[in-house]
């Protein structure tokens, strides 16, 4: 018998964290149903024969199944009531960020003039001087911005360099505040980086920033700054799904791996400075560095002997 949808249901909590950190904007009930059916189809044809979007979806499905022991058995026996709420963390975060983001638009101690409403978003987006600064300027005649036209708030200092588009990308202060708000608790935004006992990161043993979590927070902040009142992944006005996928596509692009590794290390050091994955480079002349150098040399020699 399914446990049902409650805030204390371990599977529901795990599913919500999975959505925040791995893949958020999709129809999880449909993904799970299609994934189970596809497992049978793959006995006759390889996954490489499927379109790119289906391959990504199936990868998410396998990651979810692998992340929770016994989940596949529960799904195949009809106990799927618990997992249909995986994507419903979106509404929770959207609601709390709607007012919280107003505190991050100007330096502490300053006020937004004219003031922005905490409960009504119609005065945001291109309707206010402060929030419009976080977006790209529209060209003459345009009335909407596509999701793959990234807003200025993604960049440190809201400065975009067309000659070096990676410079400052996904390193803005407002993103850091948003990430702390969602993952280490709202109260941690103004404090030293630390995952509080009540935060999502602590509850789920999260010790590093993931690509999915970064894309998720960027999408939530983008929506919070917009004038749209209802979050919908299929909304063609905010184009949130396209935005989310465009960020994730960049972070998962093998050709951008060097910049991405540097970016993810930068983030983990700021959010989880005490985790092992955020440790800084080993001292050049330390014993540990010598051990690693010797191991690398032996590995290189072994590879040479096999060719």
Task: Describe the protein's architecture and organization.
Helix content is 46%, strand content 0%. With 307 residues, the chain is mainly α. The protein is globular, with a radius of gyration of 22 Å.
Keywords:
mainly alpha; globular; 307 residues; 46% helix; single chain; disordered N terminus
In brief, what are we looking at here?
The chain is mostly helical.
Rounded mean pLDDT score:
79
Low-confidence stretches: 1-6, 137-142
Q: How many runs of DSSP E, i.e. beta strands?
A: 0
Shape: globular
Q: Count helical runs.
A: 12
* Rg value: 22 Å
Question: Layout of helices and strands, plus pairs?
Answer:
Elements lengths: L9 H12 L6 H14 L10 H16 L3 H6 L12 H12 L28 H4 L40 H12 L15 H4 L7 H15 L14 H12 L5 H15 L15 H20 L1
């Amino acid at each position: 018998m399914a446990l049902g949808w409650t805030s204390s249901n371990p599977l529901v909590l795990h599913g919500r964290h999975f959505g925040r950190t791995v893949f958020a904007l999709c129809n999880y009930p449909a993904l799970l149903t299609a994934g189970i059916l596809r497992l049978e189809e793959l006995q006759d044809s390889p996954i490489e024969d499927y379109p790119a979007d289906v391959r990504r979806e199936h990868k998410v499905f396998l990651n979810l199944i692998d992340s929770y022991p016994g989940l596949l058995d529960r799904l195949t026996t009809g106990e799927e009531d618990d997992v249909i709420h995986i994507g419903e963390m979106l509404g929770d975060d959207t609601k709390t960020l709607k007012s919280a983001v107003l505190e991050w638009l100007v330096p502490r101690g300053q006020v937004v003039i004219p003031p922005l409403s905490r409960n009504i978003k119609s005065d945001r987006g291109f309707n206010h001087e402060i929030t419009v600064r976080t977006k790209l300027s529209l060209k003459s005649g345009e009335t909407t911005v596509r999701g793959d036209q990234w807003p200025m708030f993604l960049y440190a200092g809201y400065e975009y360099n067309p000659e070096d588009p990676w410079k400052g990308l996904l390193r803005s202060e407002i993103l850091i505040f948003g990430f702390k708000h969602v993952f280490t608790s709202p109260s941690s935004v103004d404090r030293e980086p630390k995952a509080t006992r009540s935060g999502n990161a602590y509850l789920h043993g999260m010790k590093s920033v993931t690509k999915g979590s970064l894309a998720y927070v960027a999408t939530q902040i983008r929506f919070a700054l917009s004038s749209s009142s209802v979050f919908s992944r299929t909304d063609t006005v905010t184009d949130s799904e396209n935005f989310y996928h465009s960020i994730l596509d960049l972070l998962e692009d093998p050709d951008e791996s060097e910049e991405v590794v540097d970016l993810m290390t930068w983030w983990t050091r700021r959010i989880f400075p005490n985790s092992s994955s955020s440790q800084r480079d080993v001292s050049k002349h330390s014993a540990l560095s010598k051990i690693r150098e010797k191991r690398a040399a032996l590995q290189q020699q072994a590879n040479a002997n096999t060719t």
